[in-house]
Amino acid sequence: HSLVWPDRWYNPGNAAAWAAAIDAGHLFRHASNPDDPDVFVAENLAMALRLLEGVDLDWFAGKVGTDLRTGHRAERLGELESAGLVTLEGSRLRLTAEGRLRADLISDILM
């Protein structure tokens, strides 16, 4: 996947078609912009949490329009923190070492 905010792309799994497109001077990619806002949030959260520094939730809320510290997500965030999978310091959400092993699951839980 690639991201140039707010658009995401992915390269299809056809290596021969990819090579032919590159040889012709074209980018071989498909847009991956989900219509479902929850999917948009989940995909972007998963990408942001891959970074060791985590994600600033104030910044994230400004970008995607969803604050993970409100509503049902706040309770889930607390459960993940209690389980030792994430840390929340100020507005910075980070995965712990154990959380990095379960990063995909954590993004799903917060949705």
Q: Rough shape?
A: elongated
Distance between the termini: 20 Å
Portion of residues in beta strands equals: 15-25%
Query: Helix count, per DSSP?
Result: 6
Which H/E pattern describes the elements? EEHEHEHHEEHH
The biggest sheet amounts to: 3 strands, antiparallel
Structural class: alpha+beta
| Strands, total number | 6
Strand order of the largest sheet: 1-2-3
Could you explain how this protein is built, in words?
The protein is α+β, with helices and mostly antiparallel strands and 111 residues long. Helices cover 49% and strands 17% of the residues. The protein has 6 helices and 6 strands. The protein has a 3-stranded antiparallel β-sheet with strand order 1-2-3, with no helix packed on it. Strands 4-6-5 form a 3-stranded antiparallel β-sheet. Helix 2 packs antiparallel against helix 6. It is elongated, with a radius of gyration of 17 Å. The mean pLDDT is 84.
Salient structural properties:
111 residues, 6 strands, 49% helix, alpha+beta, three-stranded antiparallel sheet
Short summary:
This protein is α+β, with helices and mostly antiparallel strands and about 110 residues long. Helix content is about 50%, strand content about 15%.
